[in-house]
């Protein structure tokens, strides 16, 4: 059966690959972006997830077109990297507002429909940085680490209604963001990865679509590292 899927931040990189993977399975996919650019076949919703009213409006539009959201992938995120002594309050607040609070808002809204359906999948896209830490990314690491606690609390709170909540923690993935790194820096990062290479967006899509499948129906509160062994599950 075609399911109603929502992916936040689905216009490029990992988010776009996720949208394309669910579309290929025949699901009804909605994508939220700030500026448009969803993959062909997806419902393109303009939404700033830091705006609660915009989130409510986005869900109303999705529910009218596709029905209640059955699978939520909270992927939207930003960075404001700098060393802690140079990090401004705005640098901190902006990252937390998008990556952590924005994910909370969409999960809370999605849970309403899932509770009525008595089923659902909530999947947060975190990062190996949220588990290992990274210099210059205190705000980003805190936001991504927070998703783990959120998912595990939701898993306990919503599990009796057959709603799962899980986290995928990507490592270094080949995207537009990594393409611009100097070659020396790329090689330095690769030495930290046991598999000796960056991952592909399809690696993340494979993990997420599995968590959304019937085969993962008994998996909840889990953190799935897709990082080539960099974090060793931590």
TrEMBL record:
Domain Ketoreductase: 3-176
Pathway: Lipid metabolism; fatty acid biosynthesis
Record-linked SMART domains: PKS_KR (SM00822)
Record flagged with keyword Lipid metabolism: yes
Reactions accelerated catalytically: a (3R)-hydroxyacyl-[ACP] + NADP(+) = a 3-oxoacyl-[ACP] + NADPH + H(+)
Gene3D superfamilies cross-referenced by the UniProt entry: NAD(P)-binding Rossmann-like Domain
Subunit structure: Homotetramer.
Function in brief: Catalyzes the NADPH-dependent reduction of beta-ketoacyl-ACP substrates to beta-hydroxyacyl-ACP products, the first reductive step in the elongation cycle of fatty acid biosynthesis.
Annotated protein name in UniProt: 3-oxoacyl-[acyl-carrier-protein] reductase
Species whose genome carries this gene: Nocardioides dubius
Lineage: Bacteria, Bacillati, Actinomycetota, Actinomycetes, Propionibacteriales
